[in-house]
Specification:
Shape of chain A: elongated
Strand order of the largest sheet of chain A: 1-3-2
Radius of gyration of chain A: 20 Å
Strand content of chain A: 5-15%
Helix content of chain A: 55-70%
Oligomer: homodimer
Distance between the termini of chain A: 39 Å
CATH superfamily of the domain at 37-121 in chain A: Winged helix-like DNA-binding domain superfamily/Winged helix DNA-binding domain
Number of helices of chain A: 5
CATH topology of the domain at 37-121 in chain A: Arc Repressor Mutant, subunit A
Amino acid sequence: MKDMNCIRKEADLDQIKRCQEQISEAEEAVSALTDKLSLVSNSVRLKILYVLQTEERLCVCDLSDILNMTIPAVSQHLRKLKDRDFVKAEKEGQTIFYSLRNDHRELLAPFFNLIIHQPEAI
Amino acid sequence: MKDMNCIRKEADLDQIKRCQEQISEAEEAVSALTDKLSLVSNSVRLKILYVLQTEERLCVCDLSDILNMTIPAVSQHLRKLKDRDFVKAEKEGQTIFYSLRNDHRELLAPFFNLIIHQPEAI
DNA sequence: AGCTTATTTAAGCAATTGCTTAAATAATTT
DNA sequence: AAATTATTTAAGCAATTGCTTAAATAAGCT
């Protein structure tokens, strides 16, 4: 409680302390969550996840045609999604197929649900 | 279908077209969603929303003490949250109290639920 | 009116992001 | 083996982000 900015008389010190503890307990969960959300909050990556949900698997050049983007641009997005376990890669000949992993399906489900069933509610 | 990158013989043109249409229909919803998620994917802002969920209302300097950040830093985050209707501001004397708006409670609920009840699942 | 308190706004800056182009890998076909 | 195809990696760069500090607003107190 060293550096206090709130010095007004109505300031509720107990409230501030309680909030600090609440955040302190949630610190790790918040970091883990924002780490994942920062991936999903990119529209190209959300689109990739969205089509992978219905298509089972797609290769890099499929996605490049679908999104109308260069292959390296798509590849770099896929690497981020793979690094954080959103997708997995399977090599078949010289083609690499990407598909959704189950790891974060629970996190993604509400987003897909919003997009499909109540887009006006966003 | 002008610039095709996928020229391998197994390429499924129908699949690519279907995905393009799927994305085309979802375009607006995806933009609106990522616009909001990019706000929530910042850990400072998620913490602000998280404590506001339980505390009803807090002023800028409360939050500055809670988060151990400078007042302008907090103020700038609050402005973004306010611009996108996540929070509302009520002036009371020279103090400005911020509280959660109902607009995006549905979007936020799954996040708070994860943080509180199954942090290990993130 | 002048001083303090609460907050916002603005300028500056380092770090991050997401693209582009070019080069490097690797598997396939000729 | 050489050429083609699929993908990744790396360097470069413009745009964005989130902080810092300082200045501007605005409301209360003496």
